Amino acid sequence: MNPDRQVGCSPPARPSRFASLSPVMVASWSIEETESHRKSRTRAMWYRSLRWLTLIKGSAAPAVGAPPPKKELQPLPMTPLEKMLMELGPIREDGSDKFFGMENFGNTCYCNSILQCLYYSVPFREAVLNYPKRTPIESLEAALAKALRYQDPNARQEAEALAEKQKAANPPRPGQPPNPQQKPEDKDSPEYKKKIALQTLPLLETANNSDSYAMAESLFTSMKDIFESVVGSQSRIGIIRPQHFLDVLRREHEMFRTAMHQDAHEFLNLLLNAVVTNVEDAAKEPSPEKLLPAAESSESLQPSSSSGLKTPNTTRWVHELFEGLLTSETQCLACEKVSQRDEVFLDLSVDLEQHSSVTSCLRKFSAEETLCEKNKFHCDNCGGLQEAEKRMKIKRLPRILALHLKRFKYTEDLQRLQKLFHRVVYPYHLRLFNTTDDAEDPDRLYELYAVVVHIGGGPYHGHYVAIIKTQDRGWLLFDDEMVEPVDKNYVRNFFGDKPGLACAYVLFYQETTMEAMMKEQEQENMEPPAEANPFTTKQNGYPHSPALAHVHSASQIPVPEEHDRFTGLKRAPTAPQLSTHYEHADSENPVSPPPVQTPIISLPPVPPIPETPTSPLVSRKSDLQSKKERAKEEKERKAREEKERKEKEKQRRKAVEAEFKENQRRDEANLKAALEASKATKEDEDRRNHKENGSAKKPAGGLGRFRSFSQRINKDKESRHSLPPIPSLPNGDQSSSKVSIEQGQSEILRKPVSQPPSQPLSPPLGGQVAHSSPPEAPTPPAQPEQQESIKNSRHDRSSGHGKWRSFSLRKKSFNILSS
Amino acid sequence: MFVLPPPPPRYTVPVAYAAGASNGMAVPIVETNNIITHPENGCPLQVGEGTYQLQDDLHLATPPPHPSEAPIINPNPLATNPAPPTSGVKLSLVSLGPRNKTAFPSKLNVTAPPFGDGNSTLAPIPAKDASKKRKPKNNIIKSSSSFVSRVIIHEATTKRLNDRDPEGLFAFANINRAFQWLDLSSKVKDEPLSKILFTKAHMICHDVNEISKSSSHIDVVMGSSAGDIFWYEPISQKYARINKNGVINNSPVTHIKWIPGSENFFMAAHENGQLVVYDKEKEDALFTTELPHGSTESVKPSSRSLQVLKSVNSQNQKTNPVAVWKLANQKISQFAFSPDQRHLAVVLEDGSLRLLDYLQEEVLDVFRSYYGGFTCLCWSPDGKYIVTGGQDDLVTIWSLPERKIIARCQGHDSWVSAVAFDPWRCDERTYRIGSVGDDCNLLLWDFSVGMLHRPKAHHQASARHRSSLIASSSQQINRRRADSAGNRMRSDSQMTAADSEAVPDQPIQHPVESRSRTALLPPIMSKSVGEDPICWLGFQEDSIMTSSLEGHIRTWDRPRENISDNYGDHNSSAALGTSVGSNPAASSRGSL
Q: Which residue of A has its CA nearest to B464?
């Protein structure tokens, strides 16, 4: 394999704006170019073959007929993204259907791809937007008016002409037949698309807006600026210029000052840590401009170590989203004593093996490791270095699991890092096997929502792109300035076995529920209703090419269905234990067998009365008649059998239901008992909490709380780790009324996690069904665990610079790149 | 003279070549021969009953690309045009000799009525000469089909067919755009009896009809990546095309099987989530959905799991399709008919296992994977268990009578690609399962009903679960007895018109069982058998066979002693099952 053949960006900084666009395509397409040249010597032939070329390339850029040879500019064909967006309704207020590319300022694709991944994490985006508060809409709009720059339509023309000139200046390659007309640029190449995007889409400049939310300028504030401007912008598509963000990054972190290629995972880790620090720093210096939240947070800061105890409006939110807890259990082989140590992580780095899966990499991560020879373990119990067995397991599962696949491995003989092109498969959904026995919700379901792909032969150069599943618009490819909807299967092109040196590098999994998953699966690959928007599709004279259907995939959810969708999501919190209880959704259904037939269970199988209407017998006349009769008899018999079968089936169902009921009753009893037990604790804690921060009344949200509850019963207080809900919502009284309206809207769109639990979400459930949720309804809101957070914060400090490490398999291996 | 550029191909070019090139495999330029090797160190599989010795490794030759469809290697790794589906090598095995299977269970009563029984329009037309099977119409050698590019017939095919052991095994194998007919009992088994080279599409699944086979007739159906289906009779080298140009369903065929007991009907799973029953002898017709009595069907709650777009009871049976059922908007990975021919189990990419009463056209139960899609499944020989493999790296055992998960088997390092029961090592109590996966490994599992451990039942953390666990397991036994009895008693009759109007019962949706409540089974053997992902596994009376993505067909001979003496063997395997079961279970508990 030729490692550097197709490398995206070469190390030196590029003078031009387009410099970083990967030349990957250029070389290759020109090969094709020559081929077609050979084939077609005349202009007419040329165009035919060109059309053919466009055709076979399929849907990426639907052919709009052969480009005429005239010089003047054609109206640009719509990009796939624009096509997709045509059918959307009004712009949402929460920013979930804004699709902005990001300009590359020379090898800054690592930053662009990570920022995009974070933006499309709903809870993260909400948290960033709302912490400490939103910029008042007026000032944001004022800033945006300056920042959003629509393109001058002539600019493209000029640029085109310029490019043409440059091209003409280049002498034709030897061996190539002289071509009177330069081939128009390949409309499918990413460079071309990016160029066009830059020329046509509105550019969004971000400015430092940190004053408006009373924080010192930092990485966090500049990221918040980006997020806010995107959410606030009038346009649905465009290009962000993260210049300001990069300035701050380069000012604060020396490593990123060069225009060199950087490691995206390292950047992610740095960014998350920076956000933690920035947010915590800001909370520490109470500023007079701060309104309520400031007062609150400074108040709660009094017990200095309790920073982890705050309500959603506090600094803990990064922790609550990305942070998990690892327990390393070390068993001394001499005295067999097991010692435990807990460590927090923001992401997990896993070693790779050829032909493996993410599941297996994670299992290997937790596999037992023997500490021996140089690496002996100091046992406190028997004193001295001993051989020991060590394993690392996940004790608290993060809500967003960032998985770093260690594709860059140091090889001794080459004395440098090498990229591993192992085939590592990743499923769309994931659960973790390597949890501790006492972990909360060990069966938590994750869904893949973003993949950062590294393209290139080695760690020191290349290109990053992100493929992200947006909330309900399907998967999109974010390649710097270019944003393109892609098929769901596209996500699987980056296992590492496909040509082109593109491999998944960082995977983002976010928690989800069975119900949400099934809902989504149902929507996937739905044929867009033809009548949904009959005229808009034709409006621009570009008929919807059927080949394009795949591109839209889940993104083409017809608008009216969105209601269903969201109500469905809203319901999720009612049955938080979806994995075990969702069957009830069905038993509520009116179509399920009517309860009238319940007694059947106790009755012995009754000889069934034939169901088929027996027509009165006509006197038999012929053989034919008797044959008919026989047929009828046969039919009756069959009907009887059928009925029997049905009955059996019903009985079976009954039995299943009964068993379920039984289980539930037991569960309920357990729950009740536990409830009693926890009530006391709850009150206790509530009181304590009240004292510590005046806002214990927060409507602690959905799933995390329920989840934590379900396991809490079996746990002693110390080991509890509740996951307080995402902290995003400012209370209505804290923000201007405008914002709160916005909030209300976004709340509907938000994932179920942020639903207030008190809402009567499910329709009244009958009988056996009813008790599945009520016991959970009065559960105490999740209480951040004091001891734990103290421990955490202590640990935090001890691990130097307050920086969170990302964990690698061997405890010593931090990211090698950083050394 | 100008050379006209080729017309735009209807089917995109297979990706396999491009992928091969990137993996360092040379794209073949000329037609090459299959190579048979006997690896020196072998690849012995050591299990309790003895050692399986690798007999040979037959590497099927990847054909060169068709000249008209030279692989366009798009160097842009981010190109968004979808790649057509492709598949590794899969085998369909058939022996023409009289069936003398001694495997467990020795005899299975099939009481189910044949599919489509009761619909008079589907009644087979009595043949003039019953002994003479109807052959497809077209001669493949003289074919002018744009689909068949070339057929290479071994020069001594007739002689080889006459001289061979009638009980020897034939194999049909797809590799890339080629389809090979191999005689595995031959001394020159690397030389295919015939080889068809297709253009425009790959054959990705195929099946041989067990009912209609004879020494002069073999019915093979193949499904292609373009959706088209081929009915092929190798002995006379005749063929017919079904679903031509995707007229009935234009999405790729992911799995294809003859309906058990039928000479004519076969079922194809299409990637768009439809199961279609075709008749090999009927002509195609443009298919329009037939919803009974208006479109009430689409609002029925059961339509979530199964939507009957055309019922087998439809009176319109002059043309294909015979029946069309839509299961989901998701890819159907595989399906399998139960040994008693009453049930159909289907696994999908959305991670659901659906149990159908296909005679009644209804879904009975829906199970979910732990996570990720399901990829493969099979039935136990006695029809009591279904085993699935999936993208959660797990092999999962489900009980049909209990309608619940029995155990999860953990041991693969990547997605599982095929599972199979070894009927020669199964009895009433113990079952042998084999599985292969993308991790290049072959794993064997022994599972007996009594030996299953629940991994965390002893642990205090799940005290709440434990109580329900114990209860449910004791309940199980009772329920099982009752249920299996009920199951046996249950009889099927075909749907009458009145029945089809009745609202079908809703399928039971089974929730995902948590890990702490499910038994975890370790493998008894795990062995890396190749360098490339394994995609098919088969058990024969005297061997285990696997085939891989790049065309390696490996055959292991069974340990000698256990072929004849069946009785003692079963005892020993039962004993083995328990002893093996206890140890790894203990270790797995330790690691949890």
A: A670
